[in-house]
Amino acid sequence: MNRLPSYLFLALATLFWGGTQVVAKFGLREVSPLTLATWRFLVAGAVLVLLVRLSGGSLRYRAADWRDFALLGLTGVFGFNLFLFSGLHFTSASESALMLAASPVVGGILGWQFRGERLGPVRVGGILLSVAGLAAVVLAGRPLPGTPPAQRLVGDLLALGATCCWAVYTLLGKEVMRRHSPLVATAMAAVTGFAGFLAVSLLPGVHVWRDGLGMSAAGWASVLYMAILGGAAGFWAWYRGLEGVEVTTASTFQNLIPVWTLLLGSLILGERLTWLQLLGGLGVVIGCIVTARG
After folding, report:
1. What phi and psi, each to the nearest 5 degrees, are found at residue 38?
2. What 3-state DSSP class applies to 144?
3. How large is the greatest C-alpha to C-alpha distance in the chain, in angstroms?
4. Rounded CA gap, 189 and 187, in Å?
5. In angstroms, rounded to a whole number, what is the distance separating the alpha carbons of residues 74 and 165?
6. Scanning 201, 205, 273, 291, which has the fewest C-beta atoms within 10 Å of its C-beta?
7. Which helix (H) or strand (E) holds 192?
8. At what angle do helices 80-88 and 33-54 cross, to 10 degrees?
9. How far is CA 262 from CA 18, 36, 65, 98, 272, in A?
10. What's the alpha-carbon Rg for the chain, to the nearest Å?
11. pLDDT for 208-267, tens place per residue?
């Protein structure tokens, strides 16, 4: 069996996802994190629901299902994107990507604490290596031009908050996807997450809709990239790739995401990491691989 097409689809998905944080920087030059996230999931939710309908899926679910979808939306869409975009105001896309790369490690710790999943010596070693790598990324970083060092630390901590949200979303998603397809779970998470953004947008003094409609072409390109390529198309490519390889093999491709972000951040945004940060990022990635396979 020729696995090359599957590998190419998986790599394409990680490229789309790796570019998300770089592209978000352009949108954040014009609007707030809340505005950018709201418009992103207005578009992404609509596209994903359309894909569910085109694939013959239903939009009628039990109350218990909607509760589960709401938890996915709260963690993987609402919380994750607010933390991520808020952090990108203060730190680089590259640094944020290295923080997010530790999500499997955080997930392993949460699985051990709340699900009773086993943490053997190898997995513990992988976790410790990733934690050491994260420390190097944070401590050896340089602030963005025109921002004090303390703000960069705030950005890194917000990115770590996004990492924790994604780890919780992944754990919850394992249970939900025993009853629903990945497409349905992702689409309904986008819908319920958007509902959270919509509720906040209705608060007094919040101008999500006015500010969004005032974005330039670059701002709208940022929204459409994140909604379509970083959302629906990335999801489609990932699951096309999964059709031809094992899940364990596919999971290793996720380590390409920070690599793409570093490359694109350097080429498009002119970002530069210190050598110690690069070594720390390598430690995070290796630690994640060890944790996943231990």
Report:
1. -65, -50
2. coil
3. 58
4. 5
5. 9
6. 205
7. helix 182-201
8. 140
9. 8, 22, 38, 9, 8
10. 19
11. 999 999 999 999 999 999 999 998 898 888 888 877 777 666 767 777 888 888 889 888
